[in-house]
Amino acid sequence: MNDLPHLGEIFDRLKRGSHLGPDDEPLYSALTADPDAYVRYFAPLGLQLVRHEREFFYFEPENSENVPDTMPRIAVFSTFSLITRRTRAGPSRSSSSARTSS
């Protein structure tokens, strides 16, 4: 498993065509702490993580023809990783407090 902080959340936001800037905490801080590690992680997936000179991050596909083929596989992997991580962590506080307040 990869140790990059907030990887799933970062991927989910960027894959939808969003950008991440200073207002997008804690995702932005995670990216700025080690941008090269995220670039290396996404590169084999056919995604180029770009840090714009105005201090925001976005995905720029290496080859726009490959994006429709690779994006569903990436989304499945990302979802599986998040489900596995949350299953191992147990129930979250928000879900247990939601049950007790009903």
Q: For the CA atoms, what is the radius of gyration?
A: 15 Å
What are the secondary-structure elements, in order, as H or E?
A: HHHEEHH
- CATH topology label: Arc Repressor Mutant, subunit A
Structural class: mainly alpha
Structural shape? globular
Strand order of the largest sheet: 1-2
Percent of sequence in beta strands: 5-15%
Number of helices: 5
CATH architecture: Orthogonal Bundle
- Structurally, the number of domains stands at 1
Q: How much helical structure, as a percent, in the residues?
A: 40-55%
How far apart are the first and last residues' alpha carbons, in Å? 36 Å
Q: Report the sheet with the most strands, covering strand number, pairing sense and barrel closure.
A: 2 strands, antiparallel
Spans of 5+ residues with little confidence (pLDDT < 50)?
none
Average pLDDT confidence is 76
Total count of strands: 2
CATH level 1 class label: Mainly Alpha
Features:
55% helix, 102 residues, 10% strand, two-stranded antiparallel sheet, Arc Repressor Mutant, subunit A
List the helices and strands and how they pair.
Blueprint: H1 7-15, H2 27-33, H3 35-42, E1 47-51, E2 57-61, H4 67-89, H5 93-101
Describe the protein.
This protein has 102 residues and is mainly α. It is 55% helix and 10% strand. It is built from five helices and two strands. It has a two-stranded antiparallel ribbon with strand order 1-2. Helix 1 (7-15) packs antiparallel against helix 4 (67-89). The radius of gyration is 15 Å and the shape is globular.
